[in-house]
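Hello K.,

You asked for the raw outputs rather than the summary table, so here they are, unedited. I folded two proteins back to back in the same session to keep the settings identical. This is the first:
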Amino acid sequence: MWKNKGYIVAYIAGFFGILSLITPIAYHDDSLVASYIWMWGLYTWRLLLGDTTFNFSEDTNYLTWGLIATFLILIATISIIITARKAGKRSRNYGVLWFLCGILFIAAPIVFYFGLTSDLPSWLTDLFWDFYSLHFAFIGSFIAGIFAIFSAFMK
């Protein structure tokens, strides 16, 4: 039944990869302020009864690690979607590539988290992660990685 159907699971991994790129990686929400941060530098800030402000981060430490993680997810997402399409049409096996894409999906949020943590002073790191919580992009990238690795072993 599952013979040569790994490309379907690879498409699901690609879908979660796209979701990881377009959803925030961190958020803070309380009664006074709501803030969301994307890996690629976009952030929003909304005060209670105020307008929402969209802006891009100018912090080089944040942007360096965020853009590296974004690039890893983007490369893995494009690779897995293109090869899943080819595998579905020609019944080819891209198991090794899908496994590597799964590793990239899993490595990207880890690179972001620990890269950001290593560049900030310890007191500021504690403040940042005490203020912000992880959002779907962090978890979604792990889900994409699990699906990609699972698709690699489906023959």
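The second followed immediately with the same parameters:
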Amino acid sequence: MPYLIAFFATVLLEFLVIFLFIRKKPKILFLGSLAINSITWPAANIVYNYFWHNLLVIELLVFLVESVLLVIILKIKLPKALAVSFFANLITALAGFIIF
């Protein structure tokens, strides 16, 4: 159950960051956040828990993958996607450190 709460907290926090950058079509942005995190969140957790305990490198990879997915799913330009992904992942990582 804690994993499910953490997942949806991540989706919500990242949606809020994405919305602050884009400020249109919140339903699409939420679904985009849900889709993107449905790919990266479990992958990052599996890699971290079972294979490689380097959180910094895993977060860097998530940041890069999410940037590309933002370009593909939300049709935004790469520089903006990089900024959105950086801040979204920074906020969720800080929240994770504070909570856990």
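The helical segments are 2-22, 26-50, 55-74, 78-99.

Happy to rerun anything if the numbers look odd on your end.

Regards,
P.
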